[in-house]
Hints:
By secondary structure, the protein is mostly helical. 74% of the residues lie in helices and 0% in strands. It is built from 43 helices and no strands.
Amino acid sequence: xxxxxxxxxxxxxxxxxxxxxxxxxxxxxxxxxxxxxxxxxxxxxxxxxxxxxxxxxxxxxxxxxxxxxxxxxxxxxxxxxxxxxxxxxxxxxxxxxxxxxxxxxxxxxxxxxxxxxxxxxxxxxxxxxxxxxxxxxxxxxxxxxxxxxxxxxxxxxxxxxxxxxxxxxxxxxxxxxxxxxxxxxxxxxxxxxxxxxxxxxxxxxxxxxxxxxxxxxxxxxxxxxxxxxxxxxxxxxxxxxxxxxxxxxxxxxxxxxxxxxxxxxxxxxxxxxxxxxxxxxxxxxxxxxxxxxxxxxxxxxxxxxxxxxxxxxxxxxxxxxxxxxxxxxxxxxxxxxxxxxxxxxxxxxxxxxxxxxxxxxxxxxxxxxxxxxxxxxxxxxxxxxxxxxxxxxxxxxxxxxxxxxxxxxxxxxxxxxxxxxxxxxxxxxxxxxxxxxxxxxxxxxxxxxxxxxxxxxxxxxxxxxxxxxxxxxxxxxxxxxxxxxxxxxxxxxxxxxxxxxxxxxxxxxxxxxxxxxxxxxxxxxxxxxxxxxxxxxxxxxxxxxxxxxxxxxxxxxxxxxxxxxxxxxxxxxxxxxxxxxxxxxxxxxxxxxxxxxxxxxxxxxxxxxxxxxxxxxxxxxxxxxxxxxxxxxxxxxxxxxxxxxxxxxxxxxxxxxxxxxxxxxxxxxxxxxxxxxxxxxxxxxxxxxxxxxxxxxxxxxxxxxxxxxxxxxxxxxxxxxxxxxxxxxxxxxxxxxxxxxxxxxxxxxxxxxxxxxxxxxxxxxxxxxxxxxxxxxxxxxxxxxxxxxxxxxx
Length: 794
C-alpha cells in the first residue's frame, strides 16, 4: 500500500480500526470454534445483548435490537413465499423447463390466490404445454378478476375460434366478458372485444347485423383516438398489417347490413391510409352511384382512372356514372382519350368498340374487333371479343369468333371459361345451340366442322341432351363415324331411350360391318343393362368375349349381367378370375367389392377393401375411395364406430372435402347423434355442390332427426326431383317419413310407393324393401284416424 493511502487512512478512517479488528477477531474465533470446543463454549457465554458493543466506536451507544412497527403476519409470509416461487418459476421458464415452472406457479397461487399475474402466467404456460382444460380455467379466472386483460382475452378467443373451431363458444366468452362490471368501456380492451365479436359475426357465425353493430363501435372509437389511449399493439390488433383492407372489410359488412352511410365512411377512411388501393375506389364509387351520389362517385373514379388501371371494369363504371348524370355525350370522347393514352389496354379497346356499336358507328366497332383479334390471336383476345358479343347477344358473330378461336388454338378445353360463361344463362344457351344448328344446316353452311365441335361441347357441358342428340344426328347425316354412333348410343341410354340406342347400334353395324367388335358390343351390353335386359346384355358381353377373350370391360359387364340374373356366385367367380390375372385393375377391384356388398357378403367385402388399402399404400385417391366404401360396408354391418373411424381418418386429411363431410354428417344423423355438427358438415358440402341430390337428402335427414320435419321438406323435395338410380330408394323413403310426420298421409304413401318400386327393381332387391312395405301396411291400417306422430320413423 502506498504511503499516501496509509496517511489518508490514518486521518479519515482510523475510527474503523476497532471495528475491523473486532470483526477479524470474530472471524478468527469462528474459524477455530470447530477445532476447540472449549473456546466455542466461551463464545456462547457472551450475552447476546453485549455483542453489539463489539462493533461500536468508543463513546457511542450500542445499537438497539430492531423491533418492526408492524410484525409480519402469516399472510405476509405466504405472500413473500409466493413471490419467491413466482420468481423461481420465471427462471425455470427462461430455461424452457415449463412443467417445473407450472408446478411452482400453482404453489405460488395457493399461497396468494388473488395474484392475477400468477394466473395469467399459468394460462400462458398451460396453453404452451397443450393443457387445454387448465388453460381455459386459468384464463377465465384471470379475465374474471381483470376483464381489461387484453392479452389473455386474445389468447382465449384464438383458442376457441381457431384451434377448437368453436366460434359460438368464442362469442359466448366475449359477451360474458362484456357483461363484467369491471370492464372499462373507455379503454382499448373493450374495443378489442368488439372487434373480435365483429370478426366472428362477419365470418363463421354469419350474423351480419351484429357484426355491423360491433364494427360501428370500433370505427367510431378509431375516429376519436383522443378519447381512448391506444398503444401501437392495440392498433395493430384492430387494423392488422393493412389498415386500408381492414376498413374495406368494415365497409363490406356495413353494405351487407344495409348501413350505406357507414359503409361509405369506412371506404373513405381506407383511402386515407392507401389512396392507391386497387379495389376501394371502385367499391366506393359504385356504392355512391347506387345511392344517388353520382357527382361524388365521378370524382372518385376520375382520380382512379388517372392511374390508367388495367381491364375494363373501371371504365364500365365510368360509363354507368356518366349515364346516371345524363352526360352520355361525354362517354365516347372520354373512352377515346383514355384508350389513346393507354393503347395496351385491350379490354378498354373492346369497351370502346362496344360504345361505337351502340352509337351506330358499326364500321369503327368492327375495325376494333378485327384489330383485337389480329393483335391478340390468343385467349386474351378471344376473351375480350367474346365478352363483348355475349353481353350484346350477337349470337352468329359469337359462334364465328369461337370457331376461329378453336381453329387457331386447336384445343377445345382452352375455351372452357367462355363456354362456362355462356351456359350460365340456360335460355340463351338454347338460343345459341338452335342458331348454331341452323347455321350448320344452311345451304351452304355458314359454320364449319370446328363450330360443330364447339356446339357439341356447349350442349354436353350444359347437359342439353336433346340439343346434343340433334347435333350428333347432324354429324351422322353428313359424315357418319363409329365414334359418333357410340356416343349416340350412350346419350340415348342416358335419356332412357333404350330402343333408339339399340337402333343406333344396328345402324352402326350396317354402315360399318367391321365395327361388330368387342368395343361396340360392350357398349351394347351397357345399354341393355341400363334397360334392364340382363339376358340380352349377357348375350352381347359373351359375344364380345368370343372376339376378345381377355377384354376386361366385357368381363366386368358379364359379371354385372350374371348378378342381375341372380347368379351371384358365377358373377363373383368371373371377376375373381380376371383379378388373378390383373390384380391392379382398380375398376374391376371396386366392381368385385360392390358385388360382395350387394349379395350380402359384407365381412368378405370389408376384408377385401382393407387388403386393397394395404396393397396400394401411397395411392391417396384410391385409398380415399376405398375407405369411403369400407365405411359404407361397416355401416351395413351395423358397426358404426368403425364406419365413423374410416371417414374421420379421411376428414383429418381433407377437412373441406364435400363428399367426406356429407357422408360423415349423414352417418351421424342416421344414428341421431352429433346432430348440430352433422348439420354444419352437410351444409359445408352443399356450399360446394348446392344441387347434389345426395347432399340435399342428407340435410333433410339431419333436420328431420332434429325434430324439424317442416324444414326438412324443402331439401328432401329438391333431392327427390333430381335423384336418379339407387339413391331414389333412400331419398323417397326419407321424403315419405317427413310427409308422415306432417300428417300429409297421401303424399307419404306416394313417396313410399316410389321407394318401394325402386327397391324392388334393384338386383338383388334393396334391403329396405321389407321395411317400406311394413310402413305402407301401417299407413293403410291407420285409415282416416292416424295416430299422433312420435317424432321417430313410422
